[in-house]
Write a structure and sequence with these properties.
- This protein is α+β, with helices and mostly antiparallel strands.
- Among the domains are: 174 residues, no CATH class; 91 residues, no CATH class.
- A 5-stranded antiparallel β-sheet has the order 3-2-8-1-9. Strands 4-6-5-7 form a 4-stranded mixed β-sheet.
- Helix 2 runs antiparallel to helix 8, helix 2 crosses helix 10 and helix 10 runs antiparallel to helix 11.
């Protein structure tokens, strides 16, 4: 009774050739995964800003038309101005009285720049009187981890990740290239929302507006404003940064774009890998025609020979995947230490979707290899073919 054809024998006797194929698969796996690791560092890093921060704070700059005070209803400008002022004061009072709003400020804001591996975001933070800052700190559960609380004009508390990201330290001027020597970093704070805050200094700011200390029920500012008769509209020139805007920005401005880039890179790598592997495998098969004819001549069926080929292919692809995982972990560890941590970024080490994409790409390559494999198997006849 003949034994089952060994899938390991050829690999053991042709280590160099097989190792080249395994190495190519491993490096391709690592390239596809590590590129996704780096690009996803951007989306992972801004998640606290996009998903956690707007649950507790929203910003809005509202122009006069949105208060629904019609100029035509008043005899003169003074009456109109008085009615408009009253509407604004009433809206401010209504917001502060809302049970799902802790406090509202009509104040200046700055933007904290935060850059990923690719792209970045600038997000608002409030400039308040020094005595108001502990209220905001408490609202966010933020803690001061270095430096001191602001006490004078133009003094800031900056999140620790933003500090790393901007290569800043306590005592530096904040965004000196934009503002000059105006805003002074006096403390570093830590919170899961990456909140920043500080005190104003003159007219240096990124705008004025409502700063709402909210909860998830009041995080949609448009809905909250409509509750009190204010219609927020882009047509009126209104500007809002709330839970809806941040999440839309995350999905359309970052996630979709980066996912498209990752998919494009994966497709390019897969095409080149497929061509390389198919060419190499065709060469393997051609060099083994005599071997297959010998197996056929001693009684092995084409199906048994095909099964041996598939087991060999499976072993090499599995070895390539395992070695690719090892390479990926090593490369990610180096990049995390040299790039991610120093820039104050966050990463996701295990990306299920990307693993499935890569395995899918490998499955496509295995499928493509069936063509030359079947051609070689169907060309097997008898041992006399060995002399051709």
């Amino acid at each position: 009774m003949k034994s089952r054809l060994s899938a390991n024998k050829y690999i053991r006797n042709n280590k160099r050739i097989c190792f080249v194929l395994i190495l190519a698969l491993a490096l391709s796996f690592a390239a596809m995964y590590v590129v996704a690791f780096l690009l996803n560092a951007t989306t992972e890093s801004i998640k606290p800003i996009a998903f956690e921060l707007p649950k507790k704070m929203s910003f809005a700059s509202i122009n006069n038309p949105s208060y629904n005070v019609d100029r035509a209803d008043f005899a003169d400008v003074k009456e109109y101005a008085a009615a408009l002022r009253k509407a604004k004061e009433q809206f401010f009072a209504d917001l502060n009285a809302d049970p799902d709003v802790e406090k509202v400020y009509d104040t200046q804001v700055l933007k904290a720049p935060y850059f990923g591996v690719v792209g970045g975001i600038g997000y608002e933070f409030p400039l308040l009187e020094a005595e108001e800052l502990p209220i905001v700190m408490k609202h966010f559960g933020a803690e001061l981890i270095e430096g001191r609380m602001p006490s004078g004009d133009g003094e800031l508390l900056i999140d620790e990740k933003v500090m790393k990201n901007g290569r800043m330290k306590v005592g530096d001027w904040f965004r000196e290239d934009s503002y000059g020597e105006v805003f002074h970093v006096v403390g570093i704070i830590r919170s899961k929302e990456m909140i920043c805050m500080g005190t104003p200094r003159g007219s240096f700011n990124n705008g004025w507006g409502y700063v709402v200390l909210c909860n998830e029920k009041s995080a949609d500012f448009r809905k909250l404003a409509a509750k009190y008769g204010v219609t927020v509209s882009e047509e009126n020139g209104d500007s809002v940064s709330d839970i809806r805007d941040y999440r839309e920005m995350y999905e359309n401005g970052f996630k979709k774009v980066i996912d498209s880039v990752i998919t494009g890179i994966l497709m390019v790598v897969m095409v080149f890998l497929s061509i390389s592997v198919v060419v190499a495998y065709v060469s393997f098969l051609r060099n083994r025609v005599n071997e297959y004819c010998l197996y056929a001549s001693i009684g092995y069926s084409k199906g048994e020979i095909y099964g041996m080929l598939m087991r060999e292919m499976g072993i090499m692809f599995l070895a390539g995947i395992v070695l690719g995982v090892v390479f990926s972990i090593a490369l990610m560890g180096v990049m995390n230490a040299l790039l991610i941590v120093p820039k104050g970024l966050t990463v996701k080490w295990f990306m299920k979707d990307q693993v499935l994409r890569i395995l899918g790409a490998f499955a496509v390559i295995v499928g493509a290899l069936q063509i030359p494999a079947m051609i070689s198997i169907n060309s097997i006849k008898t041992i006399d073919l060995m002399e051709d």
